[in-house]
Amino acid sequence: MSRSRTTVLAAALLGILLLAVSGVGGASVLDVYSIWPESFCTPMFQEFTAKTGIKINFVRHSSGEVLARIIAEKDNPRVGMVFGGPADTFAAAIDEGVLEPYIPAGVRAIPEKYRHPKGYYTGIALNPIVFLSNRSFLADNKLKAPSSWNDLLNPAYRQQLQMADARTSGTGVNRIISTIFAMGSEDAAYKYMKELDKQVQVYTKSGGGGTVPVGTRQAGAGVFFLVDCILTQQKGYDVAITFPKEGSAVALEACALIKGGKNHDLAKKFMDWLVTAEAQSLYAKHGIGFMPTNPDAKVSELIDVRGANFVDVDLQWAADNRQRLIDRWVTEVLGQ
């Protein structure tokens, strides 16, 4: 094939791809950024499409990446809404002026503490920070599954932990917030995290990036969101999920409209649906380990939170301090 013909073919394929991503050619197409990974968001999108005929095109990024993108695209938004991800990310987006308020129909079914009072974001699931451990690693090292943040400082975990990078992942930010609650003060938490850093193999770009390495025993344990740990169990890995007795943060997973974004009429229909018990019961149907915010939704049998000590996060405080906490972590813990 000639170089010119190859170039034309490549350009044609690129054009087709751009049309598909942008939703051009169909009025019932909604473009979104999804912070939830494909295995969580795709079943929800497919169920909504089957019910309404509205197709959802999505691009998946971690929470930090989505926040950076919607700020950078403020004057020319590429999507209509953000789907999933910790609400502290959305609270930070409010301060940047990139979200548009909308109060979904039927939102009163969701407890007030799980939704922004002016409608800038709406909580659709709950997702706590937990420990994930490889059972074979625990047995070989004669350890019980960790039940305290201090357990992770055991010498057996030296270079055996994986967890998320707070610069790119909301999981990492919520881990920092969890340790502040657990240690009783910010200074004590950063002192602890500096010691914990000696145990860490790698900080992953995405929140759940270290779960499979724990499952395969590339790592011995880690700190993740519950939903990612349940998915690892479902894949057949012999892992244990436990909870720090001192407490851990519960992230409010949310959705929101992008200010000036595309197809808000479709996005509003999607958000109206997401707050229903019907929609949130799909977490259980599809084996997704989120806890619903709608009290009438079915809770997955995969979720067992006995022994947990969860802490509700002050989202405005988290938003106001998010970047400062990350910067301090980079400076004092990573030493960069």
Structure, explained:
It is a single chain. With 336 residues, the protein is an alpha/beta fold. The radius of gyration is 21 Å and the shape is globular. Helix 2 (38-52) links the parallel strand 1 (29-34) and strand 2 (55-60). Strands 1, 2, 3, 4, 5, 6, 7, 8, 9, 10, 11 and 12 form a 12-stranded mixed β-sheet that branches. The chain contains 13 helices and 12 strands. The protein has helices at residues 3-22, 38-52, 63-72, 87-95, 135-140, 170-183, 186-197, 211-216, 226-234, 264-274, 277-280, 282-285, 315-333, and strands spanning 29-34, 55-60, 81-86, 99-100, 122-134, 161-164, 200-204, 221-225, 239-242, 248-258, 291-292, 310-312. 41% of the residues lie in helices and 20% in strands. Helix 3 (63-72) runs parallel beside helix 4, helix 4 packs across helix 13 (315-333) and helix 6 packs across helix 7.
Q: Helical region count?
A: 13
Note the run of SSEs as H and E.
HEHEHEHEEHEHHEHEHEEHHHEEH
Q: Which consecutive residue ranges, at least 5 long each, have pLDDT under 50?
A: 1-26
Structural class designation: alpha/beta
- Largest beta-sheet details: 12 strands, mixed
Radius of gyration: 21 Å
What spatial form do the alpha-carbon principal axes imply?
A: globular
Number of strands: 12
Report strand %: 15-25%
Mean pLDDT: 91
Helix content: 40-55%
What's the N-to-C terminus distance?
A: 50 Å
